[in-house]
């Protein structure tokens, strides 16, 4: 299995009564049909988390967490590793140092968080993922 450096997803808790706004935002953000957007927002009602940003670099995360859209609870953002796409509710481990929800056991049973492990993408610009901290000769292609 080829191990790609981790990218990150940003989630937040939708506000009560924000359904229509959440659907509109989700539709525009992900370029979905109305039905697809409603399905995704319904899923987020079940898990309690709505996906705001996908496949971000670790250095991109702080700005995204600070500027949340109006239909989520202020300060409710949570960050997960992108791989497998689990919401914070679906992750089984949390690194308090990095504020990162992740899946322990997706690599090794006692694996630390990907940021602790140093195996992650720093920034994603125009769909290209860059690692600034370590270079392994892969040309940086995503
Ligand atoms: Zn960590």
From TrEMBL:
It comes from the Bacteria. This is Uncharacterized protein. It comes from Archangium lansingense.
């Amino acid at each position: 299995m080829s191990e790609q450096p981790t990218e990150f997803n940003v989630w937040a808790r939708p506000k009560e009564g924000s359904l229509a706004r959440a659907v509109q935002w989700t539709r525009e953000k992900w370029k979905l049909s109305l039905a697809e957007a409603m399905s995704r927002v319904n899923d987020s009602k079940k898990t309690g988390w709505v996906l705001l940003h996908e496949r971000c670099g670790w250095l991109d995360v702080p700005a995204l967490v600070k500027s949340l859209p109006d239909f989520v609870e202020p300060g409710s953002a949570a960050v997960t590793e992108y791989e497998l796409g689990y919401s914070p509710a679906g992750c089984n481990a949390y690194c308090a140092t990095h504020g990162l929800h992740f899946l322990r056991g997706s690599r090794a049973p006692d694996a630390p968080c990907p940021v602790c492990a140093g195996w992650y993408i720093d920034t994603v610009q125009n769909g290209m993922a860059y690692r600034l901290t370590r270079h392994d000769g892969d040309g940086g292609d995503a």
